[in-house]
Amino acid sequence: MNKISPIRSQVVGLLVSIITFLLVTSTIWGFIAYALDFWYLGDILGPLFGIICGGLSGFEMYTIRQKEVPLNWVGISLWLGKPTGTIYENGIHWVFPFFDIRNCPGPEKKFILEMPGEKINAQDGIAIFFGVDEPEHPGKHNRLQYSVVDPIRYITVDDPEDSLREEFIEKARLFFGQITKAIGVKNVKLLFDEWIDYEMIPELEQATHPFNTRLANSEFIPTSGGPADCHLFTADAVETIMKFAGAFKETASTWGIGGITVFTPNVRVNPEAEAAAAQKQAATEQMDSLKTKADRIRQLAGEMAKKNKVNPDLAATLVAGLSGQTVTVENKTINVSGFPEVLKGLGEMAINKFTKP
User: Fold this and answer.
1) How many other C-beta atoms can be found within 10 angstroms of the C-beta atom of residue 188?
2) For residue 110, what are the CA distances in angstroms to 62, 149, 342?
3) Are residues 183 and 80 in the same domain?
């Protein structure tokens, strides 16, 4: 790409203006000398009008073709409105007639673009709030920083910023829509930023890429702080995500946009859905715990009834009481001879059985 400095363009402008001065002066001088070839008028008026007209033409040629390119911007050379592929550095330039300069941001110029918000459904049907603000739950805007790395491509795009927004939200739909549980978005938000920042990964390397492994191993962490109970992405979801790793930056480069940095502080699950999911998870864990205790009580009561010939209802009542549970036996008659002695023996046996482990 050919670049023109201000000094180079100004020197060319001076040379062209001098040539213009000489051509106009000689033409006017010669014409007047030829047309007024009597009483020596041509010899007097020819050089006078020639120098005046030549000077004005050269001065206009130099001053009227001055164009300024601001700091951190570049100028794109246009020939009858069409880019020529030449770039003007920032500064004041002289431009040839029939040419023009269109100013465009340079690579040093940084832009911050606010991203649109959208509710994206995860695989469990719960919406992920991507950049969505609500009066009761305000949040920061998701933003994207970029610069123009190819000005000629950039000016050919009708609305590059709008195109960038649409492409970004499209990739957000693809990524967050693959999550198994929406409540797990807090665990993979940074993975999305990393995914957007990648360059295109060759297809043969996608399955063995380290990012593939991190996606496959990302897990849903229960609210109660217990162990992870499921992966956030299925194998098919990981394959789909890897296929489009780097696609956003690749598309942006076709618009002359690069130097992209993503900031996504406002990615969260619906607060009401998050509270409901937390309650559901806590209820599930409580039910699992109660089932384990019930199974244990049933097992011990069975052992008492079988080995010691104890009435099953009495055995269940004793074991449950020692476990901190309450068991009500209705419409049952418990007949045990020597009840105090039996109760004492069963209690000692149950206590020993629980205290040894």
Assistant:
1) 22
2) 34, 11, 86
3) no
Q: What is the pLDDT of residue 117?
A: 87
**Positions of E strands within 264-348:** 267-269
Is pTM beyond 0.70 here? no
Interatomic CA distance for residues 237 and 220, integer angstroms: 15
Do you know the residue count of the chain? 357
Q: Domain count of the chain?
A: 3
Same domain, 207 and 160: yes
What is the per-residue DSSP string for 178-208? T-S-GGGHHHHHHHHHHHHHPPPPPHHHHTT
Secondary structure of residue 332 in the 3-state scheme: coil
Quick count: other Cβ atoms within 10 Å of Cβ 341? 10
Half-sphere exposure of 285 (CA within 13 A, CB side): 14
Q: How far apart are CA 284 and CA 222, in angstroms?
A: 11
In this structure, the answer to whether residues 262 and 141 fall within a common structural domain is: yes
Distance (Å, whole) CA 29 – CA 47: 5
DSSP state of 2: E
What domain range is 331 assigned to? 288-355
Q: Which residues of the chain have pLDDT under 50?
A: 226-228, 326-327, 329-339, 357
| Cα 226 versus chain centre, distance | 30
> Are residues 157 and 90 located together in one domain of the fold?
no
Predicted pLDDT of residue 334? 45
Q: What is the pLDDT of residue 302?
A: 62
Give rounded-to-5 percent helix, strand, coil for the chain.
Answer: 50, 20, 30
pLDDT digits (tens, 9 = 90+) for 194-247: 999 888 888 888 989 999 999 998 887 655 554 445 788 999 999 999 999 999
- Domain harbouring 125, CATH code: 3.30.479.30
Calpha distance 148→76 (Å, rounded): 13
CA pair distance 144, 175, nearest whole angstrom: 17
**Cα separations in angstroms, 317 against 187, 286, 330:** 45, 22, 12
